[in-house]
């Protein structure tokens, strides 16, 4: 949970959010459709948020995203297992419409993220 809080504080700062909606579904009884635990961290704003004034509408939107995730994953799941019984690596076709980012763009993004995490006193172990 410490990691979720740490990343959450950075997300709030990065997106100028007033708060977060944090959702976790752990187990089928909780509505988990993909067999791994993960968290959704949604930056929220008091003004200008897509769910402004109707905060509970975020939950059906999350449920819809969870329901469609398995079908999205089917397109990238391994086709089978190798002779040694291990899963074959996931093969993802290149997206023709996606242009590679330049080294400069990636360095700029990495520096931005590094600075956000380095300046985060909540997650600091100092």
Automatic annotation (TrEMBL):
Chain intervals with Basic and acidic residues compositional bias: 78-106
InterPro entries: Bis(5'-adenosyl)-TPase_reg, Histidine_triad_CS, HIT-like, HIT-like_sf
Motif Histidine triad motif: where in chain: 36-40
Region (Disordered): 73-106
Domain HIT: 1-52
SUPFAM superfamilies noted in UniProt: HIT-like
Listed GO MF terms: catalytic activity
Protein name, as recorded: HIT domain-containing protein
Organism annotation: Steccherinum ochraceum
């Amino acid at each position: 949970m410490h990691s979720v809080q740490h990343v959450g504080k950075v997300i709030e700062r990065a997106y100028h959010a007033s708060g977060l909606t944090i959702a976790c579904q752990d187990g089928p009884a909780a509505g988990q459709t993909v067999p791994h635990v993960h968290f959704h961290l949604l930056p929220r704003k008091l003004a200008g948020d897509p769910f402004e004034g109707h905060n509970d509408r975020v939950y059906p939107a999350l449920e819809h995203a969870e329901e469609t995730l398995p079908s999205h994953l089917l397109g990238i799941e391994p086709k089978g297992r190798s002779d040694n019984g291990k899963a074959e690596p996931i093969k993802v076709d290149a997206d023709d419409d996606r242009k590679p980012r330049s080294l400069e763009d990636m360095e700029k993004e990495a520096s931005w993220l590094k600075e956000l995490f380095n300046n985060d006193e909540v997650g600091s172990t100092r």
